[in-house]
Give the backbone structure.
Amino acid sequence: MAMNRRDFLKVSAGTSGTLMLSLSLPGCSGMPTGYTEETGEWRPDAWLEITKNDKIHFTLSRVEMGQGTYTGLTTLIAEELEVDPEAITPRFAPVAPEYLNPAYKLQLTGGSTSIATSWEPLRIAGAQARQMLVMAGARVWQVDAADCSARQGRVVHPNGIDSMRYGQLVELASKEVLRGDVALKPASEWKYIGKQKGRLDARAKSTGTAVYGIDVELPGMVYGVVSRPPRYGAKVKAFNESDLRAMPGVLDVFEAERGVAIVADKYWRARKAQNALKAQWDNTDALSLSTEGVFASYRRAADEDRGDSERSEGDYDSAVRDAEGTETGRVIEAEYSQPYLAHATMEPMNATAWYKNDSIEVWAPTQAPDLGRIAAARVTDLSPDDVTINTTFLGGGFGRRLTQDYIEEAAAVAFRVKKPVKVIWSREEDTQHDLYRPAMLHRLSASFMGDQLTSWHHQIVGPQLLTWYVRNAAPAQYPWAPKFMYGALGKVGLLAEGIATPKDMSAIEGAIGYPYNVESIDIRHTHTDPGVPVTFWRSVGYSHNGFAVETFMDELAHEAGEDAYQFRRKLLAGQPRHLEVLDRAVKIAGWDEPVAEDRGRGIALFKSFGTFVAQVVEAGVENGAIRVYKVACAVDCGQVVNPRIVEDQIEGGIIFGLTAALYGEITFENGQVKQSNFHDYQLMRQYELPEVTVDIVESTVSPTGVGEPGVPPVIPALGNALFALTGKRQRNLPLKADA
Amino acid sequence: MTLSLTVNGEQRSLEIEGDTPLLWVLRDELGLKGTKFGCGVGLCGACTVHLNGQPVRSCSTPVESAVDGNITTIEGLAGNGQLHALQEAWIAQGVPQCGYCQSGQLMSAAHLLATNPTPARNDIVAAMTGNLCRCGTYSRIIAAVESVAGDSLAYDAAAVGEGH
């Protein structure tokens, strides 16, 4: 049982009675380690548990939403533990300090960080446990541990013949004390890293037995649905409560924080009651904007404010003056925009909660269980310590499940009905009450002197995401803070941005990393937030900056009368990893060979989350619709742990990006989202699948992320292909066949 | 109303409103959670099951229209203690990412092979186009179906699970 903070408080008060509490807490270990006699289990650390019977459990601190942590992280620990990854059973981690993501100081899965941040710690954990087992074996045999080895879950005697199962040694191993560091295996001895190809969750997911949030079943469970106001920010004014209460199976109808909640004994009965709901909304504080209004406000903001300087090199203003004042000089300008985008995870938002007087238990497909704990505490009379979050498999995440509104709702309903309750969102609710990838505006300009690109200017216009995220994230970083401080913590979190907390890069990432060698560079962000709820969306800021930067680069190449590949190439001197992926993508695509008359080829190169990706898209227009035929992709993500998962993530990112480029658009009218389901928020389908080739650069550099980097370049690469075909430049998304 | 269904070869009778979608009957009344809710209107295919040998979208199939019908869900795809050849292929090819849509994908693919044991690429694409996958595993799906379709021995095993 993990020691919770309430226990700690008691202990602390009893022994010292001082107020050292808040200082000592962050180091308070949540997960017990050691050997347990009764169960025969040895927990060498927060990750591993090995039993007398050779069962090996691995606590997975990053959730599995398709990106492959279940397999990848298990492979890392298996490699050093000297067991087959298939022999390990992963479990989803409870909330505990050991499981914080070091990149965020939150227990959060996102930002393509899982492999990168686990690469060393998990291998070390595996190696230490293996070493303790080896030492235990050596002690039994009375030989030198340095002469023993480990293989396939056994410690092997120096004679190479005798061996003992790990299970036989766990009790003894738990008493061994490690001195100094344990050496990690050299790459030449890896059996699984870079070689493992299967997915450990494939069987459960191919037999219908994997448990997602929506599959949780509890005794006496009831079902909740919530009708949220069509316009964001509106409140409930009145509704036909008694009509609904009279409907079959309806157990409760009440005003919840975000709308009208209906609880029934069966899901379909709750939905039927919801269909009979007649609600009036108080729209005093509701959004009234339209999409056109949002972009108009962005343009006004851009005109009024050049924005904060985020990167400045050379002297942009004088480069432009020089170009304008010279016969051979030219200044090129363009404005780009991208719409709001929904996440559209295949598993709609849902959570199950069970309130029991002094505790609440939540089952949810969440990317951030520690934020979920804050969310559940916030809407009940409990503190975060009283909240248990059980994470399930996630039917897609893409950033949507970083925000815990669905847990907050389920916890609030459970607090009211005092029964286990599952709250499920309909697809329409999921689409219309998402937190979106923000709509963004970009103003770009560049100057040439002769054929030399002399300056690059990029003004990014739109909101930042931390403003929307800090509400539960700030309290989660200080979980012992009383609830009345949550509001203040959120404000402090924002005020301290860039000082005590990381700088919010969400609007500018990818833009400030402009890789091309240009003398004057001026990158700015004009912050303006129209009030539409926004959050992280697969590849975040890179998703919109990739399109703006790499399309404008294409415009400049065209302006210079140069080949789009060669134009980029000559500006990338001293950037070997960029050049490598660019050259490889071009080679796969046959860039120098002529393309069919009714097709165009486009290229783009973008580094995100530490990973370098170049793509060449071959596309055309068929029967009035854009058709993508081929995507050639080269990726450098450092050391590869599972080649097939890398390929799948990059290809999946390509499909995700193409879906945004071809279809993605959430629009507002009078503060209300117009799209509702897959007929008007379309996803790419099987018949549209292009031929995708993914070439992975072999590397021994520490691994970087692959979940997101496939997305950004494919959007401009497609736009550039259409330009090559039609000669018409599209600067707004989604792309049109008849632009 | 009281109605009866044969689900995965087992006769089940239950008391339920006739307009309840088959999906929620399978999931919440019969405890078969492998069939998933995706869109509620038959657009995504996550809820695909076989009704009398035909693939249907259980989210928009009222249970009363399935009365006395013979239903196969993902849980019934394996037979005689052996996975369906497609399930083996799905595992071997590592098809699922988040995996949420895969029960529906498998049921669509199983119907295709039950009616057309040697489908051409176009047949596979056409049969699978009604099933959305947000993770974008589309090429692995094609490869997995082709690996079974191209192997007639494997296909004999595939036929086993089809219970109708």
About this structure: Residues 85-160 of chain B form a domain with the DNA polymerase; domain 1 fold (CATH 1.10.150.120). Residues 102-115 of chain B form the longest helix (14 residues).
